[in-house]
Amino acid sequence: MLALKPIRRAYSHTFGQAAADRKLLHDGDLIFHTSKSEQSRAIQLATHSPYSHCGLVCQQNGEWMVLEAVQPVKFTSLRKWIIRGKGDHYVVKRLRDADKALTPQAWQRMLAAGQTMLGRDYDLTFGWSDDRIYCSELIWKVYEQGMHRKVGQLQQLRDFDLSNPAVKAKLTERYGNNLPLNETVISPVSIFNSPELVTVLSR
After folding, report:
1. Which of 10, 93, 122, 165 has the fewest beta carbons closer than 10 A?
2. Are 77 and 180 within 8 A, CB to CB?
């Protein structure tokens, strides 16, 4: 198994087809970037993190893909996913004990959990029900349902920094005057900072 340490080098849009890079990826890896979406800035400010979007890396028919919660939940080619991020920068993380814990059987259970969410709408209000799904919620639930592993610390909406005007404006747009401050939430940065994970790629 390859040593789990950060690897940095110039980004190439041919990443998805580069044999050397493909060998560094495993099914079940987690990938993070700074989204260019309208809500990205508010997420960054509220969570004090540059990373506002994340997904689950997997191989489908010989091509590396990202299972992500956008509109709707779907598989996106890794190359397209990377290009969507700010500056083409991304970080890939993996379970610290993936060589033992993330067995083929465990991965199949995770993939099955993810596939049950395909086609569901993106959750603009970050609720915890399965009716609609947002990016970090998808990852957390796939790992919890497929491996019984809690990757990242669950929080409540009130735990985030809601003081910035940009954050307040986005909250008002989504919730009006009825903020669900007790709503269970999992943020991209909570997963990113989980001690369960190690960084395997940073581009």
Report:
1. 10
2. no
Query: Alpha-carbon distance 140 to 112, whole Å?
Result: 14
**Which DSSP string do the residues of 133-178 spell out, in sequence order?**
B-HHHHHHHHHHHHH----S--EEGGGS---SHHHHHHHHHHHTT-
DSSP letter string over the chain? ------------TTGGG-HHHHTT--TT-EEEE-B-STTHHHHHHHHT-S--EEEEEEEETTEEEEEEESSSEEEEEHHHHHHTBGGG--EEEEETTHHHHS-HHHHHHHHHHHHTTTTPPB-TT--SSSSSB-HHHHHHHHHHHHH----S--EEGGGS---SHHHHHHHHHHHTT---TT-EE--HHHHHT-TTEEEEEE-
Cβ proximity of 138 and 67 under 8 Å: yes
- Residue written as token pair 């497929």: 146
* Cα–Cα distance, 159 to 162 (Å, whole number): 9
CA 28 to chain centre: 11
Please say whether the dihedral angle defined by the alpha carbons of residues 103, 22, 120 and 53, taken in this order, is positive or negative. positive
118 contacts 73 by C-beta, under 8 angstroms: yes
pLDDT score recorded for residue 92 = 96
Q: Is the dihedral of CA 154, 158, 163, 168 positive or negative?
A: positive
